[in-house]
Design brief:
Number of domains: 3
Structural class: alpha+beta
Distance between the termini: 39 Å
Order of helices and strands: HHHHHHHHEHEEHEHHEHH
């Protein structure tokens, strides 16, 4: 089961110290009080007996994990009643949701690791551990590493070793709403000072299935943030991804997100689903044009046709064309796990 030993020990030590400090405070100005409280050993013994048993875990620990698991399911529009089917908990009953200690006992360390793999979140965050970067998830890299983006998608879609069946993916290019945002104005960003632009954040949406009814939900992996349109290398990287999607016949959704949400999404301080799902419509605005227009080979369709030859050269020099048939290759060779590029 979950190791709460260190957390419990810290709480026990804190309580004992508080008792001792109360005693020492009483010595100030008290001439005849020269011994610690007689009940201190008994207090320590009782606290130890109460804390070491998993069924009587400190309420704050069990409630914290329960709260985060419920938040995780809500963010992904998964009904709480489906939790047993989703995580294959054979003995799970809905009544356990009302008792944090019983609820937590259903989740051992192996299952928690599996949950993190399914939803792309950090185990430290789920368990409530304090870290230097106490974020919910870790954005991956794509700049100068498009192969990592392609590898992630292929591994999620085609690998037979995943915990849940997957049935598709979508790509989102997210932009802070404080930036100019229209087909015409996006091109004007090319001439901005680099430091004045927040840049793009790439998000991959993976749709997954679970249970006998093949119920679906979507998870989101965030890739590079700060992919500035005003810097040619990052702009060419974004356009190279768009070229791949054009070859794969996959649309890229270009979206605008309010500044605070964009910052939280980029740094990993929020569950991506809380921003990207449709129930967050008040902070996300879909734009009705296709980002792939920026890599079209027809001048009347491409707002930045003037640099298309340079983009194609960049694309070919970095051998991104090899990824065009990668989906079929990956499907035919499911034993492969790691692709670099």
């Amino acid at each position: 089961m979950i190791d709460f030993g260190s957390l419990i020990g810290a709480e026990l030590f804190k309580r004992a110290i508080n008792k001792l400090l109360d005693f020492l405070a009483g010595l100030i100005g008290a001439e005849n009080k020269d011994s610690p409280p007689e009940d201190l050993p008994q207090i320590l013994s009782e606290e130890n007996n109460n804390c070491v048993k998993s069924e009587t875990l400190p309420e704050t620990i069990s409630e914290n994990l329960t709260s985060k698991l419920k938040r995780l399911l809500k963010a992904h529009n998964i009904p709480l009643i489906s939790i047993g089917e989703l995580f294959n908990l054979k003995d799970f009953s809905y009544s356990k949701l009302d008792d944090p200690n019983k609820f937590v006992d259903c989740f051992d360390s192996q299952l928690l690791a599996k949950i993190c793999d399914i939803f792309y979140i950090k185990l430290d965050w789920l368990q409530g551990k304090k870290t230097l970067f106490n974020s919910v998830h870790s954005p991956k890299r794509c700049y100068k590493a498009i192969g990592d983006l392609v590898s992630f998608i292929c591994n999620e879609i085609y690998s037979p070793y995943k915990a849940l069946e997957t049935c598709g993916f979508e790509l989102f290019f997210c932009l802070s709403s404080s930036q100019k945002f229209s087909t015409k104005e996006l091109s004007s960003i090319r001439h901005l000072n680099e430091t004045s632009e927040t840049g793009f954040c790439i998000v991959v949406k993976i749709t997954k299935r679970y249970g006998l009814q093949k119920s679906e939900f979507s998870t989101y992996q965030v890739f590079d943030h700060g992919m500035r349109w005003s810097y040619w290398r990052t702009r060419y990287t974004l356009k190279s991804v768009a070229l791949l999607c054009l070859k794969w016949n996959k649309k890229i959704n270009l979206v605008s997100i309010d500044d605070d949400s964009f910052s939280a999404l980029s740094t990993g301080d929020v569950l991506p689903a809380e921003i990207m799902e449709e129930n967050s419509g008040e902070i996300i605005h879909h734009r009705h044009f296709d980002f792939r227009d920026y890599v079209e080979s027809y001048p009347h369709m491409n707002p930045e046709f003037d640099e298309m030859k340079s983009v194609e050269s960049y694309y070919n020099e970095r051998r991104y064309r090899e990824y065009e048939n990668l989906f079929k290759f990956w499907h035919d060779n499911p034993q492969l796990h790691q692709i670099t590029g």
